[in-house]
Amino acid sequence: MSKIKLGFSALFTLILLSMFAALASAEGNFTPTPSNPAEGINIGTVDNFGQVNAHKTHGNFQNNTNSCANCHSTHNGADTKLVKFKNAEYDMCLSCHDGTMGFYNVKKASGAGIFSESHESESMHNVSSGIKNSAAPGAYTNKDTNELTCSSCHNPHGSVNDRLLKENVIANTPFAYTMVNGVKVPTQNGIKTVNLALTEDPAFADINKSTTNSGLKITTSIGPKDNTDKVNYSQFCAACHDDYAASRSAGRNSNKDKAPGNTNHDFLYTHTSNSSSQGRNCAACHYAHGTDISTLMDTAGKTIADLTKSPAQGGKGWTETVAKDYMKDVSAGGSSNKKFTNMAVCWACHQSTHVIPGVTPVPGGDYSGKTKIR
């Protein structure tokens, strides 16, 4: 068994090295080694069982870990948490998660969306802008004035969630609560978690095949796992966007409930996101990280990449220019992290509202995108 494990572990190390070799050769001045697979990233090669293996970066550290030093500097930290980077979290996280290191590239379209630089139909959680959590759209009772950063939602030291989502959100406030007349009322059980529906990433099929013994799997997420998790997910988002977690008929008695200068909605009805019977959550319509022209879909669930494929491949054979003009979000409020372009985000779910008995549907119309709504 040890020989088998050693063989698999050595293969995994070689795969890691090959992933980083392209980057190294492009720079021309760095040669990767098992203990330093990329410039400035130093990991051990022998695990607690004496086998060759790569060490974890986020939590579940080996007894001989060196992972702390990848992000922190003991004597020369750039901030009070001894983080190495001047611009702290964003630069630190992007030093790996920009595609040069780490399996999850936040600049690449994923189930969480994308941190994009396309500047076309682009919107996102601007974690590097210095914006305050309390400035979130729909913020009503949330008074947290910390800056929005990666760690507002993720715990870099690990969590029970596959994507390191925190059990406590902003300022360590548990997100397990219900909204009563616009006021957060904590639940008895306190902390909740969000389980995600995960599938193996086909882009890393070789790694997933070779790591059965270690349990390492590179996965993609298609959203919360079941209805309970969908409600938890909505409450997770409502730690900042608290006004949006209200019940379906949570109208306020009068404008006196509004804090001076607060721009919260004085609504009567809203899309329910706090009831497991509805099975609806924020991720049904929005991407957590953000969206751009490449991630937006139409009501058929098609992206620009899909539309430029030939008809034989299920596309329309359009040029990229035509596909972009078709997909561009022209809403006055911008794309708002939406999965679907313009108000197609409504059509994708409310498909029955356009059906007129005896009338042929619009030529070329395809409303199958509802399968993308979770």
UniProtKB/TrEMBL annotation:
Keywords: Signal. The keyword Calcium does not apply. Pfam families: Paired_CXXCH_1. InterPro entries: Multihaem_cyt_sf, Multiheme_Cytochr_ET, Paired_CXXCH_1. Residues 1-24 form the signal peptide. One of its GO terms (molecular function) is oxidoreductase activity. Residues 61-101, 149-169 form the Doubled CXXCH motif domain. PANTHER family: DISSIMILATORY SULFITE REDUCTASE SIRA (PTHR35038), SURFACE LOCALIZED DECAHEME CYTOCHROME C LIPOPROTEIN (PTHR35038:SF6). This is Cytochrome c3 family protein. It comes from Neobacillus novalis.
